[in-house]
Amino acid sequence: MPEEQVPVNDIEFIPTVSCELRDSVESLFFFNQRQKLLSEGIRLSVEQYGRPEILERDGHLWIGLRSGAMQCLFARDRSRESGRLAGVALYMRAVPEILSITHLAVDPDYAAGGSCGGDGIGLRLIEKVRQIARRINGVRLLELPYKPRCFLPVTESQSTRGVV
Fold it and tell me: What structural domains does the chain harbor?
């Protein structure tokens, strides 16, 4: 008997979501039940980069800083009810050579061990931000969230050398 295939979720990566998803954004980022696992790293990130908040314009929401210095990337599962939010990454370029992922939140259902956890949403968000970093002139490293001085090289040739 063939092994049952679990359908892969249809994930899209977008910088903003509809205002209708405010409750989902709040739940994912501010009230995520898994944040207690990273509370010290989250606290340090807020101290270093600032306190993110939900921002709204023209019927769309994103998470960032009022200064506009922080960017947002949502992972939305189009195969689930009304485009369920699976995760979000916040990132910024605080210094010329480094793009820093300041925060990363994954819906518990999409985290390892969750009902949809096989998709590796956290890793996929990191890789999408890494792709963005490759297109920014002068950026050589991607700083990972909640781990001081933990970097990934941005270019493919640097990738073969591993984590810096």
Answer: 11-159 (3.40.630)
